[in-house]
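Quick note —
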Amino acid sequence: MPNQPVTDSNGLNEEQFLQNYNAVNYERPSVTVDMLIFTVMEQEQNNYRKLADKSLQLLLIQRGEHPFLGQWALPGGFVGISESVEEAARRELYSETNIDNIYMEQLYTWGDVDRDPRMRVISCSYMALVDRKALDVQAGDDAAAAAWFDISYHILETRREVLEQDVRQETLVEIILESEQEKLSGVVKLTETIQGHVRQVSREIVRSAGFSFDHLLMVQYAIERLRGKAEYTDIIFNLMPPLFTLSELQRVYEIILGKELLAAAFRRKIAERVIETDQSTRDAGHRPSKLYRYNREWNLF
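Predicted structure written out below.
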């Protein structure tokens, strides 16, 4: 006996249902993408005998259109009706900054109702770590300028309250982004509630100066995630040149994690992730150091 088509409560099979479906019956929010592109860059210093200090940096574009005209934002834009979200992310990143062919991973979806003053907009954010020296950043499309900003991330205050049924903790985080010409700042409040086995975290902007939309929240969340991923993935090696010293690698980890690391413990932890080469540094003023490369097979099994 041939299979009978499945019908719904109105007696329609799927083909008939789709023929009569009217998408206008439902409001449709717009979708955008926003990219958080991080790098670690050496800071200029005059003492050639001292290892150059480094800073964590984020790429921002200056908006050339309303809303937030002239303010700084993450590279991004609207998703086209015939492209995937990732395709839109790559297209917008290239059109606004000239960056192409880098690895990005999806970070979070932002859907607060009033996050965009134009209309209902849901944004999907992506994160990437890159070697800035290998990029040719140029502003384009609707971006008036593009610039790298040094990141400062400080925990201002933490309050913890233990109740009968749950635990509540509030943390104030200050974020400062600074370039040669601009300084942006803001404070984000993180509220973490634990009820039994359920953990919930909410974020809200307490103060924001110079940031567009809710991009301050995206920056805070990305730094938080970046620090977590540095502990258990190989994402940090996207920031490194093909050959590097262990001291350089340790310094990059310290910049990302925001704390100093013991050299012996660090080298034990990353021993399987790197391969020693037969080359050494030849920088004036420094003793030669062994150069290493990333072991691309360490996490395959």
